[in-house]
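User: quick one, fold this
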Amino acid sequence: MKKLFFIVMLIFAGTAADAQAWTGKGDQKINAGISAWGYGTGITGTYDYGLNNLISVGAGLNAYFDNYKDNDNDNRVFVFGRLNFHLKETLQLPEKLDIYPGIDIGIVGSDFGLGAHIGARYFFTDRIGVFAEFGNNGSLGVSINL
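Assistant:
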């Protein structure tokens, strides 16, 4: 997996353009990647929509293949809503970078699921970037501007 991530980084490293990681109201992002810790190990997909320069709301789905909660087959999926607070403007970050703390609230199997994270997105082009979210429900992958 490290090799794949490195190859993707190399492909986009030379294509840096006028990329913006966060534009605020109406901004839309899709993230796709691996869910490496939290309720299990698997894949993740999220969508975020900017309400204003600080806040985005969205939804996501994690599908787990291993180490899922309590090793119970019913806990293989986490469906959630999310809320993020974007600090790009507050911290005066470069246009290509956004840092955001956030929460995920949803259902894991038949149980309530809660996640908290601090995430970062870095865009190489206007459309393609990478993201990482660290916390009790974290992931790594590709981020796409819509």
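User: anything notable?
Assistant: The chain has one domain: 22-145.
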